[in-house]
Amino acid sequence: MIRTVPGDPYACLVCLHFSATRPAVREALLQVDATLTQAGTPQELRTRTQIALAEACNNIVEHAYGPHTARGDHAIRLDIGGDRAGLQITLRDFGRAMPDGVLPRGALPPIDPADAQSWPEGGFGWALLRKTTHALSVSRHRGQNILRFRLPRAEKPDTFEGNAM
């Protein structure tokens, strides 16, 4: 469901509920981008939104639910609220809890530039989320994981500080 507040193009609210599968995530990302485009959201902010949501949703599919999500019986709820300062994003799922209830620190994996065969396939997601978002947090309430973050209208400076640990 998608709603907008009359007279305020920045107060667009997206509420999606979709299966925790890679195809459903791709479809949700397309719906979000179409909605943000229609609301007049700048391309740069839409791009950052797509990157952050792809990382976060795919982490839910892969880690919160795991391989059994292929059945399609697990879901992700995505809510996006907007204002003149940017977007507030909340993702909810009923998968496994974050280990120790704490977000990973988001350190980049070691890379040997001279050895392309040793380059990791993954491990960049939390570093990317910490770098591109504000107020990144995770909580668990009544068996539900709740991931929240803010994407400012203006791109965040290159720093890892200011996010919850």
Order of helices and strands: EEHHEEHEE
Separation, N- and C-terminal Cα atoms: 32 Å
The whole-angstrom Rg is 16 Å
Strand order of the largest sheet: 1-2-3-4-6-5
- Number of separate helices: 3
Q: List the domain count as a whole number.
A: 1
Question: Helicity, in percent?
Answer: 25-40%
Descriptive key words:
Heat Shock Protein 90, 6-stranded antiparallel beta sheet, disordered C terminus, 3 helices, 30% strand, alpha+beta, 165 residues
Characterization of the model:
The two termini are 32 Å apart. The chain has helices at residues 22-38, 43-65, 125-132, and strands at residues 2-5, 8-19, 75-83, 86-93, 134-141, 144-152. Helices cover 29% and strands 30% of the residues. α1 packs antiparallel against α2 (43-65) and α2 (43-65) runs antiparallel to α3 (125-132). It is α+β, with helices and mostly antiparallel strands and 165 residues long. The longest helix is centred in the N-terminal third of the chain and has 23 residues, at 43-65. The chain has one domain (2-152): Heat Shock Protein 90 (2-Layer Sandwich), CATH 3.30.565.
List the helices and strands and how they pair.
Elements: E1 2-5, E2 8-19, H1 22-38, H2 43-65, E3 75-83, E4 86-93, H3 125-132, E5 134-141, E6 144-152
Antiparallel strand pairs: 1-2, 2-3, 3-4, 4-6, 5-6
Helix pairs in contact: 1-2, 2-3
